[in-house]
Each structure stands twice: as C-alpha cells, then as structure tokens.
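Dear Dr. K.,

Following up on our conversation at the group meeting, I've run the structure prediction for Integrating conjugative element protein, PFL_4703 family from Candidatus Competibacter denitrificans Run_A_D11. I'm pasting the input sequence below exactly as I used it, so you can double-check it against your construct before we proceed with anything downstream. Let me know if the numbering doesn't match what you have in your notebook.
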Amino acid sequence: MPEAKTHPARRDQELRRYQIIIYLLMGLIGLLGVAYWRIPTLLSVHVPPDMTQPHVIKPNEIWPINVYAFGEDLIVKLNYCREDCGHDYLRNLDHYRDFLTPRCREDLALHRQRNASLYENRAQQLLPTGDEVFDPAKVQRIGRDVWEVHLEFYVESHVKGVEIGHRRIHYPMRIVHAPGIPLDKNPFQLAFDCYAPPGPQPVDPKSS
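The predicted structure tokens came back this morning:
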C-alpha cells in the first residue's frame, strides 16, 4: 500500500489497514468456529477388558469381546420374566428398545403375539452353562458393522412355581453397530438385530 503524504490521506490509509486487520481476524474466528463445530464432543472408545496386555485403541473400533459381552448381557435381561412372560417380555422389549433395531423389536413382539401360549403365566430365566469364558470363535464378523454371536444358556421355566423346563438352548445373535442412537440412551452403540437362521435351537445333550 503506497504511503500517503497528507495528514487526511495518512488517516484514511490507517483506517483501511485497521479494516483489513479486522476482516482478517473475523475470517480467522469464523474458520476456528467451523473447525470447533466439526470436532466431535465425544469419541466412542471400546476398551477391551484385558488390561494386562498393551493395546492400541482407536475411536469407534469395536472388539469382538465387547460384542460378545453386549450380546450376553442383553439376551439374559431380555428373556428374564419374574412372574409372567405374557406381560414381562413385552415390558422388556420396551425397556431395552434402544438396544434393539426397530425391525427386531417388531419381529420379537410379533412372535410373542403369535405364540401367546408359550409366554403367558410362565416365569423364565437364562442360566449359565459353565463355559462362559470368552472364545473368539463365538463371534463371527459377517460385515463391516455386523457380527454373529453364538451363546448357550440353560432356559429354566416355571408355571405357578412348578418347573416345566430346563433345557440348554443355543442363541445365534446378530449384533450391529448402531452409531445413530444417542449415547445417553445406548452408550455401547451396538444393537441386537434378532437371530441368525435358524434361530434359537435346543442343544443336543450328546454334543454339549
């Protein structure tokens, strides 16, 4: 910018310099605001439970053991009926709705409706089989954000205090990454997408 020779010209020149500086500062503040807006306030980090070994943990990286633990905990809670599965099961579907995909929740509710006699007046709980130690073979990755988790439990059922069943059942669960669910409702960012074919099946006692 050429130097002004008169006092008014120098004053105008200084004003123009200040204006340029102000515009540059405003532009810089705007860029910083955009950058801050694009930075996520929370990063999902799935920490493997084994802290005896060093791990490189990346944001949004989901370990098989975390998928396994999610499926194991959810299936037990979902199928627990203290007194009457006719009411308790539907209550469970609603309570854990943020841990189910919408399609799965509808399918499970429809199964309950079509098989009312299997649920009504029945108390039920899933019990451990004794081999709950994590095995990587129990978790199969079938897509970028899709896993199959294979679990087995003893299903204990009672009607009016009388035991009517104690069978070992295999549950092939389909688990998906669900980043669209708010963290305050589902901190795991995983969801149960119902059962892989052929669905829950009794385990042959000879093979267990």
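Two things stood out to me. The chain has two domains: 1-39, 64-202. The domain at 64-202 is CATH 3.10.450.230 (Nuclear Transport Factor 2; Chain: A,).

Best regards,
J.T.
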